């Protein structure tokens, strides 16, 4: 309560961070007046579930969500869709609301404001972006359009711009749909921000075997059109035929409209303190438009993951209700499947260490998931693991794991090791279970740490 009455909290944005903020407030103080705003006509869509929908594993696009307006309203939340917050007056504690359906505006007051404004796809500054069949892969509207293209017989060649998680998901979706896919990126290797070359070298054969041509180390120069439709993509090295282009070349913070209200950094990210409060009192920010404390370095970093946004949402909810809780450091754990391979990574990689200003050492281990007496026909397949650590004191900084068996949960243990500032000595003999139906007597994390100690 505030001053003898329940607070009015406005939450802007219905994705991961906004959803968790609402849930956190309801869990702690359900009588709080909550107004929840979404610019689109659909709340709480999970773009990270889009591949499952596009491949038909999830049939109903409307089910790829956290929440429905009806359920939120049943818990006392006032949900507003197609309502865009266009301005904030921090002094007056008001926001300007543009009702997109009615094309009217109004002013709403707040006691506390939480901004989960997220990010939007980055627009490539090249000619041809306005052509038909140049798509993005973010949000429900694009999901529906992309689904139609997977069965469009006129689409034979697909060019995906961006070889991160979203781009690789798009490439796999359309390759499985029988299209020839070209995957373009400026970076040297697909998934280079998540995996080092020991892993991407293995995946390269998988991409090739599934009619995905890797065109990394190339810069897009133009989208080329004919009669208003895209027909090819030209890079600094080649021209690739394209009946459809999917741009997944990064994101930018959706904060231009806040530049005169809040302190932003040189990338347009909202500056927040350790309690997620912005430069204005009673205004908090969460999600992809912010930086978070990064456990491997102790500094702030941009970690655009749903898990991070959800944690921020819960912490913001506590601070909105005056509990004064600091945002905990995160390690940036994530996972993905590429055809038969399942991989996960966390923290610092060899490929990202330089940008973070870190000196690192690593050990790469190849083993089998189970003991040698278990036959490959029974599922005993290779597993690849790389452990990254500080050469000065052996502190664990990151790891990557990949196999055709799902052993990705090991990365959660490494995430805890990073957050707990564990060292090679701690990990080398850490206690993990053994059962030959599941794994080896020494967990691969033990083996890697033991080998790293030998090479110090």
UniProtKB/TrEMBL annotation:
Organism: Lacticaseibacillus brantae DSM 23927
InterPro entries per UniProt: FAD-bd_OxRdtase, FAD/NAD-bd_sf, FAD/NAD-binding_dom, FAD/NAD-linked_Rdtase_dimer_sf, Pyr_nucl-diS_OxRdtase_dimer
One Gene Ontology molecular-function label: peroxidase activity
Domain of life: Bacteria
Gene3D superfamilies in alphabetical order: 3.30.390.30, FAD/NAD(P)-binding domain
Keyword list, A-Z: FAD, Flavoprotein, Oxidation, Oxidoreductase, Peroxidase, Redox-active center
Keyword Oxidoreductase: yes
Residues in FAD/NAD(P)-binding domain copies: 7-313
Similarity remark: Belongs to the class-III pyridine nucleotide-disulfide oxidoreductase family.
Pfam families (UniProt xref): Pyr_redox_2, Pyr_redox_dim
PANTHER family named in the record: NAD(P)H SULFUR OXIDOREDUCTASE (COA-DEPENDENT), PYRIDINE NUCLEOTIDE-DISULFIDE OXIDOREDUCTASE DOMAIN-CONTAINING
The protein's required cofactors: FAD
Name the UniProt record assigns to this protein: NADH peroxidase
Domain Pyridine nucleotide-disulphide oxidoreductase dimerisation: from-to ranges: 338-439
């Amino acid at each position: 309560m505030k001053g003898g009455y329940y607070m009015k909290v406005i939450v802007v944005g219905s994705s991961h961070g906004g959803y968790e903020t609402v849930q956190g407030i309801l869990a702690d103080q359900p009588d709080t007046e909550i107004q929840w705003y979404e610019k689109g006509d659909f709340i709480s869509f999970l773009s990270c579930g889009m591949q499952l929908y596009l491949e038909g594993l999830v049939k109903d696009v409307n089910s790829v969500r956290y929440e429905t307006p009806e359920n939120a309203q049943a818990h006392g939340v006032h949900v507003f869709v197609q309502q865009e917050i266009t301005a904030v007056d921090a002094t007056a504690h008001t926001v300007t609301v543009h009702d997109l359906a009615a094309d009217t505006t109004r002013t709403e007051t707040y006691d506390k404001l939480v901004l989960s404004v997220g990010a939007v796809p980055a627009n490539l500054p090249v000619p041809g972006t306005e052509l038909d069949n140049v798509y993005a892969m973010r949000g429900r509207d694009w999901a529906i359009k992309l689904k139609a293209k997977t069965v469009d017989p006129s689409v034979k060649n697909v060019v995906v711009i961006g070889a991160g998680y979203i781009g690789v998901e798009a490439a796999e979706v359309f390759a499985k749909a029988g299209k020839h896919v070209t995957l373009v990126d400026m970076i040297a290797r697909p998934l280079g921000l998540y995996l080092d070359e020991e892993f991407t070298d293995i995946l390269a054969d998988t991409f090739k075997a599934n009619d995905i041509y890797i065109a990394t180390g190339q810069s897009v120069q133009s989208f080329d059109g004919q009669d208003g439709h895209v027909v090819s993509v030209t890079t600094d090295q080649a021209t690739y035929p394209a009946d459809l282009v999917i741009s997944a070349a990064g994101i930018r913070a959706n904060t231009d409209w806040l530049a005169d209200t809040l302190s932003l950094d040189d990338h347009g990210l909202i500056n927040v303190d350790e309690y997620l409060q912005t430069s204005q009192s009673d205004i908090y920010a969460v999600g992809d438009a912010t930086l978070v404390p990064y456990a491997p370095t102790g500094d702030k970093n941009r970690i655009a993951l749903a898990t991070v946004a959800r944690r921020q949402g819960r912490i913001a909810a506590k601070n909105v209700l005056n509990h004064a809780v600091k945002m905990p450091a995160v390690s940036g754990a994530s996972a993905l499947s590429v055809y038969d391979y399942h991989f996960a990574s966390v923290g610092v990689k060899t490929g990202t260490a330089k940008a973070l200003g870190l000196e690192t050492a690593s050990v790469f281990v190849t083993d089998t998931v189970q003991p040698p007496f278990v036959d490959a026909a029974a599922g005993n397949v290779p597993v690849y693991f790389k452990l990254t650590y500080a050469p000065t004191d052996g502190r664990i900084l990151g790891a990557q794991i990949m196999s055709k068996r799902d052993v990705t949960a090991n990365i959660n243990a490494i995430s805890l090791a990073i957050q707990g500032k564990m060292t090679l000595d701690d990990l080398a003999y850490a206690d993990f279970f053994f059962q030959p139906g599941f794994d080896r007597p020494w967990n691969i994390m033990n083996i890697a740490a033991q080998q790293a100690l030998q090479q110090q």
